[in-house]
Amino acid sequence: MKKWVYKFSSELTDGNKDLKALLGGKGANLAEMCSMKLSVPAGFTVTTEACLDYYKTNKEISPEIRSQVTEALQWVEKLTNKKFGDVENPLLFSVRSGARASMPGMMDTVLNLGLNDKTVIGMAKKTNNPRFAWDSYRRFIQMYSNVVLGINTSILESNMEDLKEARGVHEDTALTAKDLEELVGVYKSVILEDHGIVFPQDPVEQLWKAIAAVFGSWNNNRATKYREMNNIPHDWGTAVNIQSMVFGNMGDTCATGVCFTRDPSTGEKKFFGEFLVNAQGEDVVAGIRTPQPINNESKMESNKHHKTLEEVMPKAYADLVEDYKMLENHYKDMQDIEFTIENGKLYILQTRNAKRTVNASLKVAVDLVAEKMITTNEAIMRISPEDLNQLLHPRLDPKAKKNIIATGLPASPGAASGQMVFTSHAAEEWHKAGKKVVLVRAETSPEDIGGMVASTGILTARGGMTSHAAVVARGMGKPCVAGCTALVISERDKTLTVKGKTYKEGDFITFDGANGEVYEGIVPTIEATITADFATFMKWADAIRKLRVRTNADTPEDAKTAIEFGAEGIGLCRTEHMFFAPERILAVREMIFAENEMARKKALDKLLPFQREDFSGIFREMNGLPVNIRLLDPPLHEFLPHSEKDQTELGQVLGLSLKQIKERNDSLHEFNPMLGHRGCRLAITYPEIYIMQVRAIIEAAVESDKKGIKVFPEIMIPLTSELREYSVIQSECKAEIEKVFKEKNHTVKYKMGTMLELPRACIMAGEIARESEFFSFGTNDLTQTTFGLSRDDAGKFLPSYTARGIYPRDPFVSIDQPGVGFLMKHAVAEGKKTNAHIHVGICGEHGGEPHSVEFCHNIGLDYVSCSPFRVPIARLAAAQAVLRT
Amino acid sequence: MKKWVYKFSSELTDGNKDLKALLGGKGANLAEMCSMKLSVPAGFTVTTEACLDYYKTNKEISPEIRSQVTEALQWVEKLTNKKFGDVENPLLFSVRSGARASMPGMMDTVLNLGLNDKTVIGMAKKTNNPRFAWDSYRRFIQMYSNVVLGINTSILESNMEDLKEARGVHEDTALTAKDLEELVGVYKSVILEDHGIVFPQDPVEQLWKAIAAVFGSWNNNRATKYREMNNIPHDWGTAVNIQSMVFGNMGDTCATGVCFTRDPSTGEKKFFGEFLVNAQGEDVVAGIRTPQPINNESKMESNKHHKTLEEVMPKAYADLVEDYKMLENHYKDMQDIEFTIENGKLYILQTRNAKRTVNASLKVAVDLVAEKMITTNEAIMRISPEDLNQLLHPRLDPKAKKNIIATGLPASPGAASGQMVFTSHAAEEWHKAGKKVVLVRAETSPEDIGGMVASTGILTARGGMTSHAAVVARGMGKPCVAGCTALVISERDKTLTVKGKTYKEGDFITFDGANGEVYEGIVPTIEATITADFATFMKWADAIRKLRVRTNADTPEDAKTAIEFGAEGIGLCRTEHMFFAPERILAVREMIFAENEMARKKALDKLLPFQREDFSGIFREMNGLPVNIRLLDPPLHEFLPHSEKDQTELGQVLGLSLKQIKERNDSLHEFNPMLGHRGCRLAITYPEIYIMQVRAIIEAAVESDKKGIKVFPEIMIPLTSELREYSVIQSECKAEIEKVFKEKNHTVKYKMGTMLELPRACIMAGEIARESEFFSFGTNDLTQTTFGLSRDDAGKFLPSYTARGIYPRDPFVSIDQPGVGFLMKHAVAEGKKTNAHIHVGICGEHGGEPHSVEFCHNIGLDYVSCSPFRVPIARLAAAQAVLRT
């Protein structure tokens, strides 16, 4: 005969924590605690298979299951020395769902099952607490009516309100036993009159119906939707946990409480908790009565004069201490334990790994290793990489008052507050004047770099997670909320309007780049702190990971920050950002407007010394580490003068009229610049641009090498889609490099390779690898082209896609593994076939996102590269990837 | 011993036409003609292997090869009864290259080899024609100096010019034998003085050096580049053909000519040709003397009083007739034959399949089948599908005078001439006034449809082969030249400026959409004619092809045209083109500007009857054939009002100010509209749009079905990239369809499926096929996204890519098989795995391009769909694809 029911008690337990699939998470954990001989209220679990059987047999509980349930019930009666339905000494049950995966709040629970018009009197007598008994019965009717009878119980709640009004009281607790008895009568007659149902008095009937109701709740709308959203199979089913009730509110020898095995806000090793005498679990949380400290260590300002559990119930406290130690040792992690003391006897109701701050997580993990409770590898798995953000960026004071006015995309973590400015120019001026400013813009463009540097944070109304503002802010480690579409920004009027209220330049604003929330005024922040534990922990992660972690950095300053965060090289140095400095942009524009190759070369000659200086600075900072430099990538029109002032200035230099400048601007317009004349396509039409750039790189490398700085330049060609295209450019660049070597009579080692950022590049990777020495996945553009989705325009519809679960995650945040990942896998496999030594990395924004880092590890990449502030996150994610495989 | 040398003569032949790899194309054909016992001047071929050996042995001709050449030379001496280097009766040779693949003009040739200071005198005596002998010697020195000695012969040419001036003559022919003898002396002394080379007098030395020079020419720059461009392997090598010279210019018993076995302009079965007495081959072409007809049938106005070959050399003519019949029979195709008559004896120098007009091609192919010379399958392979364009579109009179002013992309075939207009409005007005106009625009947009309809052709300065103008023009069957970047068009001034000349509205212009050329003024055109042969021929093609051929048609008119061209259904009916009609566009704009779902539905309700009417018309025309309708695809801003007039009008309807309308226009702006809020993404955010469209389709289908029209609607969702996205939309559409069925109490069969036009859609095709009933490859967008290349912007750089051979063909014209094709293959294979019955087609522009059609056949598509005028081309290409596999 199949086993449909698993018993649990401290005396005998059928299950254990490994039977989650059969017993559900809750059932398995109850069994586990029982097998540790903790005093858990006895009960039994009806398996998930019984749930599936229920659906198979047309929503009938089969006789075989019924007989096993009955047998288990009798076993609980014996153990507890109570009887189900007995008038003198009634046994009551809680009936709860419990699926294999946690589905919080999705399914139903019934407490106090077994009460009826007779047992309630027995309860009252036995506990000598009629109010408690009638209140329990009232609650049971309400819950049962809702969950099992399917009645909308708002009418019952209003009956209770009516009664309170009639009695002239405000709190439920002010109702007397008599009042509650009367209320039970009212409830029953409402249920009869409105729904034609006699409230069932037979506890056994109550039980079967409750079990059926829990099974039924597996397929309620909420639960079904939740499973769809979370990819939980519909055919798992739920178990039902039927557990004898214990009460902390039966009198002064009763209590209920919550404790932590360590301090959840610091992670310090001290036993910490609160309790209330003669109370139910929810009273501890509700805050009507001030909870008492369980021991002296737990005393706080608010309760330091209260007696401790240790003092009032020393035996139960001693048992609790014994139990908490056992639990922490067993689960090898800090626990959050719920307990009830019924007539002096301690019961453990639940234990789970405790929620804690990231700093506490880190301390607990490091301490547990020191205590030899867990290995370093186990410690590594204990911290979610994304959580490290909290350690690296300022955050809002969790206790501060906040007035949320809008929510956008959490584009770059950290909290920022300051005075609003609407132009980069203003940001720079106000910053010079010593003010803290937040740059608020519809969207940013490369021309805003100066303003972004001058601001404490950037807030935009448009653009996605990989918009210009988001990418640059993350690179700078500045907080940013992007794509906050509720904001109406008028850059002309210098106002921000949201929810009908208009703010003007200089008004204070705060936002949290970690959750995308925007607040009115100033909200106090807490600065980031990095502890010694952090360093210890990261050393463990570094020792195990296989992926190298580089950084995306365009300046010596960024490079320096990244090295402090543990970067092992530069994976992407964008040369175009260097073009925007005021003293250079004019030469860039001269180059773009050049009518022929000679004029273009003349302008490029002016840029050469600047570029060389940039690279020298970066080589100096990265002494001994590889530096991957991407040649010019964006479409030329990004550099064009947009203001009439700039246009006039350029006209003067070139001897052209304003009209001519405007016409030239227009002629460079593109319908889809993302898919336009950019990347290596520029080098096919204007080879002299890349030639100037490689000359600057190699001249800087040679000079640095002569000074004793170890240089490892890697020259990267963007937007390749074909071997022949790559070959043409590579051979032109190599010819120039050979020239420089001859001129300087000095050589350095270097590599040449390409980005893979177009589907075709990935498809043709086997071909391209014949000549390319390395690949670097540009997953931002690869995602855009694979999906046919412009990240700058996706803000209008991508949120609907993720909200409706069409894409489980924003593909610009986490690599789309089935789609984009398919191309990456193909490229790595094909590339290695034709070039076994090819070095492969990723430099898209995904390089610092934990799921993506794991994917990169799994498909055999050599390194990931991300913005400096994400380097520690990538290091940890890379270590976890190793441990997960 | 290896065979390095293959002899050929009418007596004995070592080779045949199948030995092209070893003997080269020319050598194999000479051998073939000899084995047919035609009188070909005797000679021998040194193999391509000898060429490779030459390179392997450090550019030495090995003794073994030398000895075989010497033996073959003696064999030719015996056959011709002449002696190489003999003073009395010298044997002369031509020495020519001949590779496996034709490489016209890439390698070198030396004629008259064997002449020297002594043999020239023997020649003069023997032919009794000293001028001929000295002229031959002069030519030989020039050619040999260039090819073998590597001397820049421009100085020799100027020596000749000097002499002509000194003699006071203009033509080379006016120089006497004495003059030429003197010139030979000058040549030799220049070669000696300037280059220190004594011109070689030993014929054997001449021969070895000439052979080495031909081998060397395989690796000259021109040849190497040509091979790279045409993917010809560098290790094939060239053969050398050494053939005894015959002369048509030794006197009046000599002649030279060219003949065709059928009429090359009509294909009629009549023997046709021209000749000249006492002349060289080039004289026939040069046009200094009027060639004589070979027979009465060949007489034309210009030469009808001349004597025929039949009259003047009846024996040679009779031999020629015998030979031409044999050759046509042997090669089973119309031949173009070069012959020379030396002292009354006919020699065949060359035969090849004759170039001919497409009409002639067709007639010849059909006739050859009737004559049982070839099978229908062989006939099918005789016509290049692309050439059918000539039959379907008007073309320029080839004899007309033309003044080319610019060249653009051959975007839609056919010749057009008319008066220039610069706006669609003007096009419509002038057309109404009975004028023939050409619409000249920087680029067209969907708003220009009316103007395009009113014009005889469209000429644009920007955009590529798949720009709006190109796609729409091809759909309409109208000639179009697009992306003609040399044109500077001012729509404001209504002028077109090119090469410094400005044309204004009303000036005449002509262009040829088949080659992209633009001409000043009116050039006369010839109308298209479709013959009975065409119908016969296409029937054969249809019988064999496996691919069905559908058409892309948006209107009943297009559908009708396409059916006449043999379309078997509609593969793409774009619903958005229907939105631009003046009476509809306002409702479309109302829909776009709607603030909420209700307002949007109200506007959509206005569009519903129009759409229903559109579909009814198409179903009527396509009675019994499938009609694939794509739901709305373009980004909404394509429909926005651009002129202030339209904006004001819309504002009045909506009660909005001009400023508000402009702001709303701005807010719909996208950075990369191609990758923006379009296709099924519109349906995710605004489901009511597709719901209106499916209602219109199904209502029309139901009504048509009730009238007895057989309808097979296929509803296609564009821009899908994910199964969940497709499912959401499909279920919304199906729910609406069920509603319509219930309302009408009548059902029809229909299919729902999706386009595959994004890389991710192809990658995920296995998933998507679980629900989609068909796939249709949208290869325009798929090419754009796979390459990351905007077709609208590629005009600036794509020409450099194809010119430099980076992409062998424009990927927007012919499917990029290694890249885009990889995704297509993957999608077909994966789709069939999960849905064995999935129906797969292509509706991108590539569906009518022969290479692409062949590819579609090879990867197992069910149909291709193309613009109406390309349907016959696709039908033929599909048939050829079957025969090629």
Describe this structure in words.
Chain A has 885 residues and is of the alpha/beta class. Chain A is built from 34 helices and 33 strands. In chain A, strands 14-24-23-16-17-18-19-15 form an 8-stranded mixed beta sheet. Chain A has an 8-stranded parallel barrel with strand order 26-27-28-29-30-31-32-33, surrounded by 6 helices. In chain A, strands 1-2-7-5-6 form a 5-stranded antiparallel beta sheet, with helices on both faces. In chain A, a hairpin with a 4-residue loop joins strand 20 and strand 21. Chains A and B meet through helix 25, helix 27, helix 28, helix 30 and helix 32 of A and helix 25, helix 27, helix 28, helix 30 and helix 32 of B.
Number of helices of chain A: 34
Distance between the termini of chain A: 39 Å
Which protein chains make the most extensive interface, counting residues with beta carbons within 8 Å of the other chain's beta carbons?
Answer: A-B, 49 and 49 residues
Topology, number of strands of chain A: 33
Q: Major sheet of chain A: order of its strands?
A: 14-24-23-16-17-18-19-15
Return residue spans of chain A where pLDDT drops below 50 for at least 5 consecutive residues: none
- The rounded Rg of chain A comes to 34 Å
The oligomerization state is homodimer
Largest sheet, strands/sense/barrel of chain A: 8 strands, mixed
The global form of chain A is elongated
Work out the helicity level of chain A: 40-55%
Query: Beta-strand level of the residues of chain A, as a percent range?
Result: 15-25%
Q: What is the structural class of chain A?
A: alpha/beta
Average of the residue pLDDT scores of chain A? 92
